[in-house]
UniProtKB/TrEMBL annotation:
The keyword Zinc applies. This is Oxidoreductase. Its cofactor is Zn(2+). Residues 182-300 form the Alcohol dehydrogenase-like C-terminal domain. The lineage of its organism: Bacteria, Bacillati, Actinomycetota, Actinomycetes, Pseudonocardiales. It comes from Amycolatopsis vastitatis.
Amino acid sequence: MKQVVQNYKSGELALLEVPEPACKPGGVLVRTVYSLISTGTEMMKVSEASLSLVGKAKARPDQVAKVMQSVATNGLSATYRKVTSKLDSYTPLGYSLCGIVEQVGDGITDVAVGDLVACAGNEHALHSELNWVPKNLYSRVPAGVDPRHAAFGTVGSIAMQGVRRGEPQIGDVALVIGLGLIGQLVVQLLTSSGVRVVGVDPDPERCKLAESLGALTCAHPASGIVDTAVDELTHGAGVDQTYLAAGGNTNDPVELAAKLSRDRGRVIDIGKCKLDLPWNAYYEKELDVRFSRSYGPGRYDPSYELEGRDYPIGQVRWTERRNLECVLDLIARDRLDVDPLITHVSDFSDAVSTYQALNEGSLKAVAVLFRYPDAVARTEPVVTSARVGLVEHEAAPLPAGQPVRLGFIGAGNYASSMLLPHLVERDDVRLEHVATTSALSGANARRKFGFASASTDIDNVLGDDSIDAVFVVTRHSSHAELTRQALLAGKTVFVEKPLALSPEELQKVLDAVEESGNDRLQVGFNRRFAPLLHEARGQFGPRVGPATVRYLVNAGRLDHGSWYNQTTTEGSRFAGEGGHFIDTVSWLLDADPVSVYATGDLQVTLGYADGSTAVITYAETGSSGFPKETLDLTADGKVLKFDDFVRASVYSRKKWASSRIPKGRDKGQAAEVDAFLTAVRTGGPMPISIASLAATTLATLAAQTSVANAAPVRIDLPRKAGAPA
């Protein structure tokens, strides 16, 4: 395998062929997908290596002291041989990466082969194709997080530990000196904590970037702009905390910190800057100077880092690994945006030239990533996306006492058995017109359900201004187009699943929403309305942590003549029916899926932004005597068990079980229709948001894409500002 190394004596950088590491107990072997160059720490090391011996000595007086001690102990000759041997050896670079678990060592149970993990450590997260990483220095990457972003986990932990040392409170004013990679992350973490931030950096582009990420004002330290901003924000008192994220040999940062700090303010050193503290200034304000030790508690402790001995959470709340997990969670929930920090992505094969360009200044960057193409090909998901409006419209309510006037397009078996029976007896509904493909089926629907009129022309439904809402209950291949036409006609629409059979069809529906301003749409995902499932969810209670869902759909074999077999025109069976199960899981979790991975036997794994996962097994080869749908939801020390809309139970501190006498399999059609009619009558929000309908549809279609590409598929939808993925 290849690894980036440097000879500290000559300054030579090389992409060296080295033996692959073994997978030892207590850790995992990780194949790197992306690794991050620390443009501060690493480039300082690269720059020092190009200095003369005298220059190296001036840059590292701490090492000079060690050498002098060795001379006193071992003599000059032995010390010289030891120092020159060490200087003339290759040393590794790198400490922050994202990769795939390739092998699991003994004693590891929290990750499996194939999992995506973020890794830390300047001995274990190197710029190398393979790394062995001990347990406390990796964390599983939440579903939906881009591997490029997960590679920021370690540097994010450095910034987070610095912010924790500052103990910010809501309403504080903080000064960040140095707006490189760490400084930009500190700005975001402080802003998301309710702190007002001002920044200092001589680079105007970095100042602009920090302002775009939440800082109120950023400027050159000599401009006086920051001084004025601090004076106005604090009414002359000074900032509550100053975060030193700058490097270099100037003492200006610590002097500026003293100048702009309030009485008894805190100064936190995160970077490696000169610290000749001006005694009078720090003494008179009694400033509290704190150091932030890298990624957090556990750093430099071999028992923690190498032996995997964690600190009790009651004694040490935020360790290295817990900081890493927290950073990944913030990225997953869009609370930390690292994408604007990525200046350049280079293939790993170009690592040496990339370092040289950074060192020479021809490549100016905040963050640079190495991309490992072979590994990326194994993890980079296919992306399926849609443009969907984020504003949900309300409609004018119907006049008091006026029935909801309905039109039906299609009146086949499902409509006649599952929908119309819940409408025909209602006093608040008027069945105006039914349009069917054959005259006889329309006549039968009119006779059985009392439609005022029937025809074979859908324009009699879509063109009738008196009709308030339209039900589209036709074959799958026509759903998207009929829904599009009905939305453009200004109708509120109920369409049976599926909404669409391809992402292109879905986009046409969403384009019609945008064009017409009409997003009054519901898809027939009835299971979320089932009374027994509602009762079980209520007994389960609120969910705090990630959940695991197992959903077995014992679908059985189709009859030979079923039109479901017409996959060329009507789509696959799962494309037609799978949305039911995905929507049910998403409703239970109160979130939409962000990733899908499916295998050929239709084991569909859904990932959610909070780390929850769901596995839907869609089986056609099971026994017809076994229930069709069984579901288990596990989270927060509780288990919800659901058996085919007949029985349900919740195992918690106290067990709850539904009645032993089944009331029939109510799959929610009556409640679904009632919720739809309520929205039409009142003009209130539709029962399911259009963004959720789009996400469920994309996820359903993504199963087929995932099988075809043997790769995960990421669901990409726009989100409301500040909303979770």
